[in-house]
Amino acid sequence: MTKSFRLFSFFDESKLVILLYAFQKKTKKTPRREIEQAKNLRRDYYAEKESKDRK
């Protein structure tokens, strides 16, 4: 059996691909908690980036 993985990523200013994380896919539907985790990681990424830009 082939193992499938789901990747969460996004583009930062259309230049840089940010890979948040991946998990093994067990169903067709992405669990809500995984989506929320990706949203939180993306929010944290931009908060940290903004904090560094202010320095």
Unreliable runs: none
What is the topology, as strand order, of the major beta sheet?
A: 1-2
Order of helices and strands: EEH
- Total beta strand runs: 2
Query: Distance between the terminal alpha carbons, to the nearest Å?
Result: 50 Å
Q: Strand portion, in percent?
A: 25-35%
What is the residue-averaged pLDDT? 89
Number of H/I helices: 1
**Shape estimate:** elongated
Please estimate the helix content.
40-55%
How large, in whole angstroms, is the Cα Rg? Answer: 14 Å
The secondary-structure class comes to alpha+beta
- What does the largest sheet look like? 2 strands, antiparallel
Feature tags:
single chain; 55 residues; alpha+beta; 1 helix; 2 strands; 42% helix; 31% strand; elongated
Give an account of the 3D structure.
The chain has 1 helix and 2 strands; from the N terminus they run ββα. The protein is 42% helix and 31% strand. The termini are far apart. The protein is of the alpha+beta class. A hairpin with a 3-residue loop joins β1 and β2 (16-24). The protein has a two-stranded antiparallel ribbon.
Helix and strand arrangement:
Layout: E1 5-12, E2 16-24, H1 32-54
Antiparallel strand pairs: 1-2
Would you kindly provide a brief summary of this structure?
The protein has 55 residues and is an alpha+beta fold.
